[in-house]
Structure formats: structure tokens, C-alpha cells
Amino acid sequence: MTFSTLLAAQLRHEPGRPLLTWYDERTGERVELSVTTYANWVAKTASLLVDEHDLERGDVLLMDLPAHWLGPVFLGAAWTAGLAVAFPGSPAAEAGGPAAVVCGPDGLTTWAPRAGELPVLACSLLPMGVRFADPLPPDVHDVGVEVWGQPDAFIPYDPPEGTDVALLSSEGPVTQDELLGSATGAGSPATATGAGRLLSAANPASPPGVTAAARALVSSGSLVLVAGADPARLDQIAEAERVTGRLP
Hints:
The protein has helices spanning 3-13, 35-52, 70-80, 91-96, 108-111, 143-146, 176-184, 207-218, 231-240, and strands at residues 18-24, 29-34, 60-64, 84-86, 100-103, 120-122, 141-142, 165-169, 172-175, 197-200, 222-227, 245-247.
């Protein structure tokens, strides 16, 4: 089982269905991505990682992003390209060193000094994924500039398999088979009955949030991702979005 095959099946079955809805209560932003739009972002981002920055199947992508809709996009792009995802502080990632890093504005202080030795891709986190308003440090790549020129389809020359590592966790490597199998709750993907409309306030680019994101993305469900909301506001969003379940 691979992420790519599951996403392709959703594209064939229900391409216009909302797949990811993002609320940022700190800025008032709401973004909704259909299966088609999400797949397009994943393809462009996978191409950016592989064709522009020479990442290869089995490489490690370190994700230092806050809760944001680009988190699930980079997860999907990494798994489509056969990359393993790690997060800051992961002993497994630090032991071998990542092949590339993607960060937000708050990560520039940490990662810009390493931009001469590995690709550092920075996301402005501005609406619609646009570029930074101010110049970035030398050798840091602006995702909001580079991603738009990538093709709308991505076909890996070395396609990943279910046995490829998808996540470097504190408990050890997790393969795509294991991650996606646990996310769907079975050994095969959910069918048209789906996993419902699931709400999560966990950062997808973190150990607690990655499984929540994967579950909605692969189970014919839909993820409502929220940042900066208090419990009362979460209840309001859940009602407005017709949420059928909540994830950690």
C-alpha cells in the first residue's frame, strides 16, 4: 500500500470532494482543498523536491512547520517521492542528517545557516502559499516562488513501495504500509463509506498530528485542520463543518 495509489484512487472516485479544510483562527484564514487541488499541490511539491533539489527515494525530509495546510501537502509530496519524514528533535533524523529541510518563517534562524550544505525550503505561510514579502537569507529557497513553476503531474522515476520508510518516529522507522494501514484502521483502504469529516487541532508536521492527517487523507475522509481556536470555537467549527469525529 502506498500513499500515491490511495490518492490516485480518490482522484478517480471523487475528485471534487473536499479533502482538507484549514482554519487559522489567528489570522481568520480559511482554505479548502478538494481532492484534485490537493493532488495538484502534492504533485508540484514532489517535483520541487525531486526535480529541483535532487532528493531521492529513501532520503529524509525534515519538516519544521507549524500547524498549516502546507503540512499535509509536504507529507503527501514526501510519500509520493518515497521520502521519509522526520521532525525536529528526532534522534533518527539527527543521526544521519536530513537530505533537505522545509520550514516556516520561525525556522529561518535555525536553518538558514545550513542552506549552503543542504536544501532549505522556506514557506511564508501567507494566504495561497505566496512568496515571502522580504528577501530571504542567501541560498534559502522560497517555496512560494519555486513551486508554481512545477508541473501539475508527478511520476517518480523510482516509485516508492509499501515497504519504504514513511516516518522516522521516536520508536523507530514506520513504513508506508504500517502508517497507512494504521490510518485506515485495516489492511486495505476505506471504501466509499469513508472515514467521515474529521477535525484535528494537532500540527500535521508533528508526531501527534501525522497519523491524524494521514487517516483523513487516505480513508476517503476529509480533514478539518484548526489552529489557534479555544474549545468553544472548536465546537462552533465542528458544527459549521458538519464534523463526524475528532482526532487528537
